[in-house]
Design brief:
Length: 670
């Protein structure tokens, strides 16, 4: 390990611990099991101030290390964001002619880092102009637009994004150009997966459909996310200067797929500085987006990258950290990166609560009690968020499925929403009418936008056969829709211009909605009025900006309800994870559960209500947690009973379930 840094003076760190700092292997070798065991032993028994000193000295040394390429293994809450800022402070003065680009998968990190950089008085205003923080998709879009696509796949200015359900719709447009093929046999999801893997399906008839799909992308001047990444990578291969004079920090490296890895490689081939950070135990998008833990694991074995590690979790309590680490070590993949995940703080917080019940109502009552007991803290956090003095919720309520159907017993779900309601806000997503009106607005602003025209044709209820005919003509004549001289097209343009003029004239959401309703169909006028007040369309510079699929805008509240997968990048003082039973949690991956375990700082509750959804027991993930770090509770109406082990809690749940299955009253003592 490197010996370029020592802990701060005055903390009386034992020499054995001080000698382990920093955790950097400059020769590029992975940390061996012996190295990590020796480090763990040296760090054991340190006081909280000593651990803080070790943490800070390690981070400072990593941030200032001159290695051109470095991979940092960083578990949840171990201080990546702080390290990135420290790295910026080193790079900016030592590379005065270069830009620094930070790319990540997590939108919240983009928001938080931009805010931290803006408020950092140690970075000059001129240097701040040399820093960009974006999602990787936004980075790719910038490259594609700068290069106008590629030589083989040229695009016009202002390339659009095909997202959400429209990805399937555009693929359907391509399929309709091939009536000889059965649509059900050639799904967008199959093609999408192959694009994520950077190997588009090429056998017949996939190849023919794919060629038509690419023709449509050029006609619409719009790309779905997978092709945005592929085209961006090819543009960089054609013009490496697009990424010249730029140093890169890539976060959440474990969540990228093969196509995104290729883009990152094209971006960073000639860079004078590259910092990768990630954790293979936090891969969440292996099923949704073909993320591969093997990518970061392969880089970890690459000797061209110096290796570093952030060992201390500054977020979670001792019991949460220890329970999470034990969970990680159980059934760990043989090729997983070995790492340290150590608690920073002294053991002052409660154990992890595993709360089981045979009644969803009893589980909801537990949450209601939490809300009542923490009302003062919740109100204080709500005020701090409103005053921009806090950026994290006080309580995260995590669920395997957003609908929470497993609580649909005796009105339990509704009771939960009512209990949380005063501290949450209405769904952050803008309504369908809002996005439809935006499509009309942008077509009215520029009638040559073929993708907006395609959307408006759909909104107007034009028959698919007619739309397919217009598409075939536009492709054959190599013309925009507006140039076809079609009456349907002309009607769409005229309506869109009227919508555009109404919005440009201004007014309240209610006033605008009243006028827009006279022109186009609006299914939910009240919501549209609210949405227009909240997100004025005339102020949006980009027709795709702020769409949920492209760049989510997250509104922080003191209580947030999120899916387990959606909790990535979030943290809170307290977390309650619902649905921790064998049925509800069955689709949750090991990595996703680890992420759920590590969102909370002070308290974590894992709740299983066996009275709904067919659940019969605690999930195996929960039962793998160590009793030493767990408080097992059986919840029933008006009270909770403590058990010394999770096995005891499970026995109680089994007994009550059995008695009830026989149609008997389990009685008060159960």
């Amino acid at each position: 390990m490197s010996d370029s840094a020592q802990p701060a003076q005055g903390t009386e760190v034992p020499k054995a611990a001080a000698d382990r700092v920093p955790l950097i292997n400059e020769d590029g070798h992975p940390f061996s099991a012996d190295e990590l065991a020796a480090t763990r032993k040296a760090f054991s028994g340190l006081s909280e101030p000593q651990r803080e000193s070790i943490r800070d000295a390690n981070a400072d040394a990593i941030a200032s290390n001159p290695a051109r390429r470095m991979l940092i293994v960083s578990g949840p809450g171990t201080g990546k964001s702080t390290l990135f800022i420290k790295r910026l402070r080193r790079w900016l003065p030592t590379h005065p002619e270069h830009r620094v680009a930070i790319a990540t998968f997590v939108r919240k990190l983009v928001i938080d880092l931009n805010e931290e950089i803006a408020n950092d008085s140690s970075i000059s205003d001129e240097d701040k102009k040399r820093v960009t923080v974006r999602t990787l998709h936004r980075t790719a879009r910038s490259i594609v637009e700068t290069n106008n696509g590629t030589k083989e796949f040229p695009l016009k200015r202002h390339c659009r994004i095909v997202s959400g359900d429209w990805e399937t719709t555009v693929w359907g447009d391509a399929l309709r150009l091939h009536p000889e093929y059965k649509q059900a046999d050639y799904s967008w999801s199959a093609m999408q997966d192959s694009l994520y893997d950077a190997e588009p399906l090429a056998e017949a008839p996939w190849l023919a459909i794919r060629k038509s799909h690419l023709l449509l992308e050029r006609l619409y001047n719009a790309l779905p996310f997978p092709d945005l990444i592929l085209v961006g990578a090819q543009a960089l291969r054609e013009r490496p200067d697009l990424a010249a004079d730029t140093l890169f920090i890539i976060d959440e490296f474990q969540d990228f797929n093969i196509a995104e890895r290729n883009l990152i490689e094209a971006l960073t081939t000639e860079t004078p500085g590259l910092l990768l950070a990630g954790d293979d135990d936090q891969v969440l998008y292996d099923k949704l987006r073909r993320g591969h833990a093997s990518i970061i694991r392969d880089y970890y074995q690459d000797a061209d990258f110096a290796k570093a590690m952030l060992p201390y979790c500054s977020r979670c309590s001792v019991h949460i950290c220890q329970a999470a680490e034990v969970f990680l070590l159980a059934d760990r993949p043989a090729d997983a990166i070995q790492k340290l995940f150590l608690p920073l703080w002294d053991p002052t917080e409660a154990k992890v609560v595993v709360a089981g019940s045979t009644s969803p109502k009893a589980g909801v009552a537990y949450v209601e009690r939490f809300i009542e007991e923490h009302k003062q803290e919740l109100d204080a956090r709500a005020k701090a968020i409103e005053e921009h003095k806090a950026k994290d919720p006080y309580l995260l309520v995590l669920t395997p499925a957003r609908e929470m159907k497993f609580l649909n017993v005796g009105g339990a779900r509704q009771r939960l929403l009512e209990a949380l309601g005063p501290y949450t806000i209405a769904a952050d997503a803008l309504g369908d009418d809002y996005w439809d009106v935006r499509d009309y607005y942008y077509l009215g602003k520029d009638p040559s936008q073929n993708y907006s025209m395609r959307k408006v044709l759909q909104h107007e209820g034009v028959a698919q056969e007619r739309i397919a005919s217009l598409i075939e003509r536009a492709i054959a004549e190599e013309n925009d829709f507006i140039a076809l001289g079609d009456d349907v097209i002309a009607t769409c343009v005229e309506k869109s211009k009227q919508v555009h003029d109404v919005i440009q004239a201004g007014g309240t959401g209610t006033e605008l909605t009243a006028q827009i309703q006279k022109l186009v169909h609006v299914s939910a006028p009240d919501q549209l009025a609210r949405d227009l007040d909240r997100a004025p369309i005339a102020k949006a510079a980009d027709p795709d900006d702020e769409t949920p699929e492209f760049q989510q805008t997250q509104t922080v509240t003191c209580v947030q309800i999120e899916t387990i997968v959606g909790a990535k990048g979030l943290s809170a003082d307290h977390a309650i994870v619902l649905g921790c039973d064998d049925t509800t949690l069955r689709w949750t991956t090991r990595n996703a559960f680890f992420v759920a375990l590590t969102r909370a700082g002070k308290s974590l509750t894992l709740m299983a209500c066996l009275g709904g959804g067919g659940a019969t027991s605690l999930h195996d993930f929960v039962r793998a947690l160590p009793d030493a770090n767990v408080q097992a509770l059986y919840l029933k109406a008006g009270e909770q009973l403590a058990y010394s082990s999770m096995a005891g809690l499970q026995d109680q749940l089994n007994r009550v379930s059995y008695v009830r299955s026989k149609g008997k009253d389990p009685g008060r003592n159960t």
